[in-house]
Amino acid sequence: MYLEEEKEKALDFLTKVVEDDVKNGVYNRPVATRFPPEPNGYLHIGSAYAIYINNSIARKYNGTFNLRFDDTNPLKEDLKYVEAIREDVEWLGFKPPVYFGSDYSEQYYEAAVKLIRKGKAYVCDLTPEQMTEYRGTLTEAGKESPFRSRTVQENLNLFAQMREGIFPSSSKVLRAKIDMSSPNMNLRDPVLYRIIHAEHYRTGSEWCIYPMYDFAHPIQDWIEGITHSLCSAEFIGHRPLYEWVLSELGVSEPPKQREFGRLSISGFVTSKRYLRELVEGGYVDGWDDPRLPTIKGLRRRGVTPESIRSFLEEIGVFRQNCMMDSAMLDHCIRQDLKEKAVNVMAVLDPLKVIITNYPEDQTEMLSLKNNENNDTLGSREVPFSRELFIEREDFMENPVPGFHRLSPGKEVRLKGAYFLKCEHVVKDPITGKTTELHCTYDPQTKSGTGFNARKVKSTIHWVSARHGIPAEIHLYDKLLKEDASIMESENDWDAIVNPDSRIKLERAILEPILQDAILGTTYQFIRHGYFCLDSKHSDGAKGVFNRIVSLKDSWKKKS
């Protein structure tokens, strides 16, 4: 039974697999999918993609979608990651039931014992270095371990002793007995269990042996009734082992693993390992740096969950790893914000203007729309006074052809206010830099009064000097340089990180309404883009605003 809004959509290759299984009655249980993160790091946009795919397919068939923590390695996991992942998944708009792989420890052990009894698993004493040597290469078969011929009873006794904690960490492992000559390296007697004497964040010291992911994962899926184990393409070579485990355990209606391409976005780093290098190397401001594609970074930047879901829906499901243009993500962000954000005036590089014919002690409240695209957001009162700030780039003493903003003897309209004419330029006597403009205004040209005797070619924004509030502005660009290439091995981050990926503007002046800006609320700074308060640095008297995205949209949909 399909949801009505999805009936007409063409099926992607993953949904087609599920569709065929549903039609053919492959499973006598509802469609069930899962997202199984390791609690050893933070989610990123690629994680959101996997969550979206699994949730969407389950939802389409009125099935279930689980969040399951694959917490079977006590050396790397932490409760802080569990809490962060749960928070991010909920923020993205998903509320799946939560499971923990560590809750199935006894079932893993029983499954391993079953394989030993069948002669399909054995305890091996080879060192990690020896195991690598014995494994062989892509062109040469591996060699069987000298411990492969241990009897079933020997293996049962040794495995029980491993559980009891008799042996030191890494001294023995339990391996599957498959085929050391298999062309698939993952089938060359892979490790199923290893010894780790370390406290687990949930089970404490109850266990000192822990299953490998390739062994635990199919068992987790089976226990939870998963029908379709949808994962990224890097696991395609692991699928035969997934199927081998379930087959040897003799489960009925085993889950089916299928793979999709990993999502990468131009200018972003999505590898967990490389993200850690950037954070620990001090190249970014923590895991929530707005330049990172972590969910925490995107949230701090001001990206909405609606725009992320829109982006993920737009790109669809692809078979191979895919690099998407970051402009497409920006496009989805703009589309989501354009009717939500309150439009305000913000001067990022202020140049002072004194209106010489305006009363010194007068303040006039002008009514401006909060959003030109959405009348339901209403209007606000903006103070206008004798002294203003305008953008320095909106004035040119010797204008070049095509420049229609303010220059000596020329007029512009101040947004929502009056015509303004530049009469005199004040400069610093030492540097020659323009420090102040003396102008006059025409009181007959107030916006909204119907006076149209003259026309001007440009309208510029402004902020009252007496009422404006100071702020620090952070402008973000791609973290990596345009020609940067991330290598599979070591990366010279000093050479490939874009030094202009974050620009701080410390002299900005904003409309007084932003004195009461609320965390999580988006504002459009007229001509500059969409901004929000920085949740990490906005606890003082001076607000810090992050640019979420500029107004310019370079993404063009392909018809």
List the SSEs and their pairings.
Elements: H1 13-23, E1 32-35, H2 45-60, E2 64-69, H3 79-91, E3 98-100, H4 105-117, E4 121-124, H5 128-135, H6 152-164, E5 173-176, E6 191-195, E7 209-211, H7 213-223, E8 228-232, H8 239-249, E9 256-260, E10 263-265, H9 272-280, H10 295-301, H11 305-315, E11 322-324, H12 326-337, E12 342-344, E13 346-347, E14 350-355, E15 363-369, E16 379-385, E17 387-391, E18 411-414, E19 419-427, E20 434-442, E21 459-460, E22 463-464, E23 469-476, H13 493-496, E24 502-510, E25 523-525, E26 529-533, E27 543-549
Attribute tags:
3 domains, Glutamyl-tRNA Synthetase, domain 2, seven-stranded mixed beta sheet, Rossmann fold, ATP-binding, disordered N terminus, alpha/beta, Ribosomal Protein L25, Chain P, 559 residues
Structure explained in plain terms:
- By secondary structure, the protein is α/β, with parallel strands linked by helices.
- It has three domains: 4-260, 3-Layer(aba) Sandwich (Rossmann fold), CATH 3.40.50.620; 265-342 and 471-549, Glutamyl-trna Synthetase, Domain 2 (Glutamyl-tRNA Synthetase, domain 2), CATH 1.10.1160.10; 346-461, Ribosomal Protein L25, Chain P, CATH 2.40.240.10.
- Helix content is 25%, strand content 24%.
- It is built from 13 helices and 27 strands.
- It has helices spanning 13-23, 45-60, 79-91, 105-117, 128-135, 152-164, 213-223, 239-249, 272-280, 295-301, 305-315, 326-337, 493-496, and strands at 32-35, 64-69, 98-100, 121-124, 173-176, 191-195, 209-211, 228-232, 256-260, 263-265, 322-324, 342-344, 346-347, 350-355, 363-369, 379-385, 387-391, 411-414, 419-427, 434-442, 459-460, 463-464, 469-476, 502-510, 523-525, 529-533, 543-549.
- The strands form seven sheets. The chain has a seven-stranded mixed sheet.
- A hairpin with a 6-residue loop joins β19 (419-427) and β20 (434-442).
- It is elongated, with a radius of gyration of 31 Å.
- Residues 1-8 have low confidence and may be disordered.
- One of its GO terms (cellular component) is cytosol.
- Residues 459-534 form the tRNA synthetases class I (E and Q) anti-codon binding domain.
- Belongs to the class-I aminoacyl-tRNA synthetase family.
